Amino acid sequence: MTAVFESLARAMGYCLMPRVVALSLLPLLMLMVTCGALTWVYWEEGVALVRDALEFSALLGAALRWLESIGAPNLKTVLAPLILVALVVPVLVVACLMVVAQFMTPALVNLVAQRRFVDLERRKGSPVWWALVRSVGLSLLAVLVLLASIPLWLIPPLVLLIPPLVWGWLAMQVMSFDVLAEHATPQERQTLMRAHRWPLLAIGVASGIMGAAPGAVWAFSALTLVLAPLVMMASIWLYTAVFALTSLWFAHYLLAALQQHRRTTQGEVLDAQPTATALTPTNTP
After folding, report:
1. Nearest residue to 203 (alpha-carbon basis) of 193, 217, 189
2. Going by C-beta distance under 8 Å and a sequence separation of 6 or more, which residues neighbour residue 257?
3. Cβ atoms 179, 255 nearer than 8 A
4. Closest C-alpha to 99, from 204, 243, 208
5. How far apart are CA 88 and CA 232, in angstroms?
6. CB atoms within 10 A of CB 214
7. In a 3-state reduction of DSSP, which class is residue 161?
8. pLDDT tens-digit readout, 219-253
9. Are 152 and 158 spatial neighbours (Cβ–Cβ below 8 Å)?
10. What is the pLDDT of residues 34-61, one digit of tens each?
């Protein structure tokens, strides 16, 4: 476990680098640009659609008419923009984070490799498209497992164990593959993930627990709705910062393990060469 904590310390140090800080701020920039463009083009149409939906809904329409009758006029005018923002912003946040995640991990792995593992050969074991397909498939599987395990959450100890274990397993599978995709062959990747499964799972579970921090920020924002836009930006930055720390943690641990694995393998080959030479018959005059 010493290597796990050493990798964490190195990852935390790398998070203070200007390049990593810039990458963690990128989703905020993408979100602001996207929201600005969509607001400029589609805001009026979107608000009108939500207002029409409120009017055509029998239950909501009756509730709104009752509220207006007791002294809350033009309530649809106020609610429509709020509902539109509540529907669109979470989708944009998830989309921005997914886009950033696709090139953030390779960029951070490349940063670690350039600074610590310059001599580590890049054997390009897996294409980028396969990593994306694999990540989507494993994410869907994790969601299905969580949904199937919901009845078990009624047992107090299990609700604290099952979600972190599932998300930890998902982080281990996805991050390990992404980190080793450029440097390791499929055989090397399978060997490392099998030999280091428990430290990798521990890193994944710890990363999943850290990922709950943005949720805590949102819970606090329920008490301070006035600061909701600022809290939203803070939570997006926290999501990206945790993702960056997780990527760096896996990168430091796995690249060091790959380097040690190759040194051990090459040493065994060199030790075996004299024996093979001695057993090979030679033609002497």
Report:
1. 193
2. 3, 192, 195, 196
3. yes
4. 243
5. 13
6. 21
7. coil
8. 554 444 455 566 667 777 887 888 899 999 999 99
9. yes
10. 777 877 888 788 878 877 776 666 555 5
